[in-house]
Every structure is written in structure tokens, then in C-alpha cells.
Amino acid sequence: MLDKILSAQAPRTSDKAEGAEHDEMLFIIIHQVFELWFKQLLHEIDYAQVQLREHNVGQTLHVLKRMRSIVKVMVTQVDVIETMTPVGFNSFRDRLDSASGLQSSQFREVEFALGYKRPHILTMHDAGSEAYQKLTKRLNQPSLWDDFLVFIDKQGYDLQQAMTEQPVDGQIKSHPAILSALEKIYHSDPSLSALCESLIDLDEGMQEWRYRHVKMVQRTIGMKLGTGGSEGAKYLLETLNKPFFPDLWDVRVSL
Ligand code: HEM
Fold first, then answer.
1. Quick check: 174 and 246 in contact, CB under 8 A?
2. Is the pTM of this model over 0.90?
């Protein structure tokens, strides 16, 4: 199995007479490492949801802590790719064609699983492909946030109305009933407030990753267009400061 992983790096510049461009190997490996972490995150999110459904706060906290550690490693790993200069990247960028992080279906799965569901993302994948099937499944199943709300509701904080008003498309929107429940939790329920803090840790970590990624993009390609066809850094800058769980941020003003 390890052989399979270790032979999965095929630099596109290896056909050059002078040999493959040195930095392409790093570019391939760093993407593969991230994809493995995305896979692990999905595995942990699934587990956290099962634990929430079983009202097992201790195990949920444990797995959220692990997810936070993974995201911190992901953020730190940006340092490695930042050792690649713009010239190093340009030595093979034209060989990427339209390949881009935009196509990372696992990253979109993470977004869907946390609650940021955009159905149009499916159109980026061939209907019938494994990626399409997995994304469709995640789109139609409850997110981590949905399970968190169900759990909180069952703890005696009435969120029935709020749950029916959760958007089915796009970013989760703050809701007065959720804010009021969170306010009570923060003031009087240490166990549930620890859960809230673990979720905000994860949210903050993901936003940190987006920030580090866009800074890395800016120092590598400046304001050039992306290989995936977007406006590059301009597009990525618009994805910053958009929390997965806005209620957890908005409640702070009333605590
Ligand atoms: C030199 C290194 C990199 C450059 C220049 C770069 C550049 C870009 C650009 C320009 C975009 C916008 C979409 C487009 O291509 O048009 C993008 C999106 C993205 N990249 Fe990178 N990237 C790099 C490394 C990485 C790495 C190592 C990962 C890890 C998996 C990654 C993951 C992503 C993801 C997930 C998106 C989609 C973000 C979103 O839509 O919110 N990128 N990247």
C-alpha cells in the first residue's frame, strides 16, 4: 500500500530533456498531503456527528480537539509551499493546464460537512463520478452544525423553529433563537459551552487556512488569474472572514 502512495507522484515536466523541474515534486507532494488531511478531517467529522447523535459530549470534544490539531498542521504546512519562489512555480505552471485547488472535491466535502453547502459545486464534477456521488451524499445529509443544533435542542433549548429556518443553500445564517440558546449556554452550561468553543476553534482554524493560502497565492502569482479559471487572489480574498458557524461569533457581543 505504501508503494502505491510513494509511486503516485508523476511530475508533468519529467518529459523535459533536462529532467523534471525541481519544484514540481514539492507542489505535487504538498497537494497530496493536504488531500490526506482532508480525508482524515472528513473521517473525524463523521465520527463527531455520530457522537453528537449519541449525546456523547466527551467523545465529541475529543474528536473536535483532534480536528483542530489537524487544521493547525494544515496551516503550518503552508510554510513549506511558501519556500517556492514565483520563478520556481513558473517553471512548471503552464503544465498544470486548468488543474486547480478549485477541483478538490474533498475540500468541498469538508465545506458541505461543516454546513457550507453550495449545490452548484456539483456541476464542477462529472455526474456519476465518485466525487459527484460523495458530494451529493454530503449535500443531502445533515451537517455537523445541523447535528449540533439537534443536540442542543434535545438538551432543552428550543431550536425547533430555528432548525426549520436554516438555509439549504450557501452559508449558514445567524438566527435569533440560536443566539439566545448560545447566550444561555455560555452563561450557565460549562459542558455545552466547551463544545461551542471547540466548534469555534475549528471554524477559526479553517479561516486561518484560507488566509494563509491566499497570502501564499499572492506571494507566488500576485494578482494573476488562477489556473482554475477564477480571478485568482481576487476571488480567494472574497472567501476570507466568512465563518462556517456565524452564530458562535455573533453571540460574543451579548456575553
Ligand atoms: C503555489 C501554490 C498554489 C497556488 C499558486 C494556488 C493558487 C490557487 C488559486 C489561484 C486558486 C483560485 C482558483 C483558481 O485556480 O482559479 C486556488 C484555489 C484553491 N486552492 Fe490553491 N494554490 C496553491 C496551492 C494549494 C495547495 C497546496 C492546496 C492544498 C490542497 C490548495 C488548495 C486550494 C483550494 C481548496 C482552493 C479552492 C478554494 C475556494 O474555492 O475556496 N492550493 N489556489
1. yes
2. yes
Q: What's the gap in Å between 198 CA and the centre of ligand 1?
A: 26
Residue 221 Cβ contacting ligand 1 at under 6 Å: yes
Q: What is the pLDDT of residues 30-40, one digit of tens each?
A: 999 999 999 99
* CATH number of the domain encompassing residue 231: 1.20.58.480
Cβ of residue 106 lying under 6 Å from some atom of ligand 1 = no
The Å distance, Cα 213 to ligand 1 centre, comes to 7
Q: How many domains does the chain have?
A: 1
Domain-embedded: residue 235: yes
Ligand 1 centroid to residue 100 C-alpha, Å: 6
Per-residue pLDDT reduced to its tens digit, 156-190: 999 999 999 988 888 999 999 999 999 999 999 99
Strand partners, 117: 170
Q: Which residue has the cell 468553543?
A: 197
Residues 88, 165: Cα–Cα separation, whole Å: 49
